[in-house]
Amino acid sequence: MTNDRTTHLRLVNGDAVQAPAQAVPFRTSWTADELMAMTFPEPRWAVPGIIAEGLSLLAGPPKVGKSWLSLGLGVAVASGAKALEAIEVEPGPVLYLALEDTARRLQNRMGKILGGKPAPKDLTLATTCPTLPQGGEEAIARWLERHSNARLVVIDVFAKIRGNTPPGLSAYDADYAAMSRAKRLADTYGVAVVLVHHVRKMASEDFLSEVSGTNGLAGAADATLVLKRARGTADGVLHVTGRDVEEAEYAMAFQPAAGLWHLLDGPPEDHALSDTRATIIRHVRQHPGSTPKAIAEGTGLSYENVRKTCQRMNADGQLCVNATGHYRLPGTPPEGVPGVPAVPDHTTTSTNAHAHEGQPALLSVPAVHFDEETHQ
């Protein structure tokens, strides 16, 4: 690759850009007893419970706030602040490729998000990058080589960097091949790579089916996140599923003045209900088997209002009631039936070493900057 395609890059040593060296072969097969005797580190989390190392696809409709969300996460990880105003993260270098933005727009957004706090030195911003097949993969690899403790790479948006479709490939194979380049970076360097993408105009009950393109995109990703607008008082719902991430839905609220998304307490349905129904839901979750009288006393709502609302919620499938008038949430065991232990939430950060057993060696390439003069 010659530097006529990478005028936005600056070489540290002044030499011509060189192709990365071939990765050292690593073991890919074992006998069953060998595999079971091995000890692997836990995945490293960029945002515990939401974004793990590997390739994540963050999709959503236009203007839903994907760029605000991804930039806010980048700032939080680079500075060690709480992600989504709620989740502790381990700080580390972040590369944010804002390929649809200008330096002025980035500065305005950063100013809102920082709210007067110092800008993190560990956040590298760039507004141009070659497509992955035409040098982008090597450029990102060189940045990762310089920042061996990097925590996160965000590419906003994927369409700007995927490159042209090779001739002769089906749509599925083309999508899978395009994702594979980004996944190779994530796997080689043990870092979280987030590709910002769009969803289809037509909604679907399965949020994975809303991702624009073929199933090759979600199929190649280690995790898929879809940000959707929610009805009612919640500004959005973040749907998450993946290989190392438990499937979950998170209620989110957007603060326009600060440019920040923050995590709301409780599941999304609590925030898409009327205040009365949401209050009853929260009380019954904490006190399963409550009667309308107990709910009224515990919440301060009038007994008659609670009694009628509980009846309507039972008819709507939002509550279940037994023969003696005790209410519980759907999917929870009736009184006297032991429930399944709750799964611990993801509020801690893994402290595993950067090197992973079974991962390929890092690419041996010269250290390269994204152009600081252009993108600061």
Structure description:
This protein has 376 residues and is α/β, with parallel strands linked by helices. Helix content is 29%, strand content 18%. The protein has 11 helices and 15 strands. It has helices at 32-37, 66-79, 103-114, 136-146, 171-189, 215-220, 268-271, 275-286, 292-299, 303-315, 372-375; strands at residues 9-11, 45-47, 51-52, 54-60, 94-98, 123-126, 152-156, 192-198, 223-228, 236-242, 248-255, 260-263, 320-321, 327-328, 368-370. Helix 2 (66-79) crosses helix 3 (103-114) and helix 9 packs across helix 10.
Describe this structure in a few short sentences.
The chain has helices spanning 32-37, 66-79, 103-114, 136-146, 171-189, 215-220, 268-271, 275-286, 292-299, 303-315, 372-375, and strands at 9-11, 45-47, 51-52, 54-60, 94-98, 123-126, 152-156, 192-198, 223-228, 236-242, 248-255, 260-263, 320-321, 327-328, 368-370. It has 376 residues and is of the alpha/beta class. Mean pLDDT is 81; it is low at 1-24, 337-368 and 371-376.
Q: Which strand order spans the largest sheet, edge to edge or round the barrel?
A: 6-5-7-8-4-9-10-11-12
Helical residues, percent: 25-40%
What is the strand content? 15-25%
Mean of pLDDT = 81
What attributes characterize this protein structure?
11 helices, two-stranded antiparallel ribbon, nine-stranded mixed sheet, 29% helix, single chain, 376 residues, alpha/beta, disordered C terminus
Task: Tell me the layout of helices and strands.
Elements: E1 9-11, H1 32-37, E2 45-47, E3 51-52, E4 54-60, H2 66-79, E5 94-98, H3 103-114, E6 123-126, H4 136-146, E7 152-156, H5 171-189, E8 192-198, H6 215-220, E9 223-228, E10 236-242, E11 248-255, E12 260-263, H7 268-271, H8 275-286, H9 292-299, H10 303-315, E13 320-321, E14 327-328, E15 368-370, H11 372-375
Parallel strand pairs: 4-8, 4-9, 5-6, 5-7, 7-8
Antiparallel strand pairs: 1-15, 2-3, 9-10, 10-11, 11-12, 13-14
